[in-house]
């Protein structure tokens, strides 16, 4: 989903007229549904092939996950965020629009920093298993899962001398669309 959000924001920044006038109305909902379905199928495959049956095809399933993660989702996410970052640097955007891009940038940055190590470790487990490293990667993945609300609140309250108001106000400030 983070890849889909990044790509959609990049397309919206590069071709705003097309996005407002010609983009299919339900494209985001359809893409999110397809991505959730893909995630469910892949998680189900890992559960049934690797956990329940301990099949010899477990390596194939996990290698497919690693391939999708490293060679499809992550490159699209990084490329679209680099394009957004370059576009933000070369144009004077209004402050409230830039906040959303900052949130997406930090979410992707922390995903790359905290989320990717678990995928790398899962792949490396086929060659050497180090319990301590795997537990650190699990901790980083848990941290990645919980850091996004903190990013939203901090970016939403950015520019204030100190945080005033509620978390709801900060979230509204980040996601306002004018």
TrEMBL record:
<keyword id="KW-0812">Transmembrane</keyword>
<feature type="transmembrane region" description="Helical">
    <location>
        <begin position="98"/>
        <end position="120"/>
    </location>
</feature>
<keyword id="KW-0675">Receptor</keyword>
<keyword id="KW-0472">Membrane</keyword>
<feature type="transmembrane region" description="Helical">
    <location>
        <begin position="126"/>
        <end position="155"/>
    </location>
</feature>
<feature type="transmembrane region" description="Helical">
    <location>
        <begin position="26"/>
        <end position="49"/>
    </location>
</feature>
<dbReference type="GO" id="GO:0004930">
    <property type="term" value="F:G protein-coupled receptor activity"/>
</dbReference>
<keyword id="KW-0297">G-protein coupled receptor</keyword>
<dbReference type="InterPro" id="IPR017452">
    <property type="entry name" value="GPCR_Rhodpsn_7TM"/>
</dbReference>
<protein>
    <submittedName>
        <fullName>Proto-oncogene Mas</fullName>
    </submittedName>
</protein>
<dbReference type="GO" id="GO:0005886">
    <property type="term" value="C:plasma membrane"/>
</dbReference>
<feature type="transmembrane region" description="Helical">
    <location>
        <begin position="61"/>
        <end position="86"/>
    </location>
</feature>
<keyword id="KW-1133">Transmembrane helix</keyword>
<dbReference type="InterPro" id="IPR026234">
    <property type="entry name" value="MRGPCRFAMILY"/>
</dbReference>
<keyword id="KW-0807">Transducer</keyword>
<feature type="domain" description="G-protein coupled receptors family 1 profile">
    <location>
        <begin position="1"/>
        <end position="152"/>
    </location>
</feature>
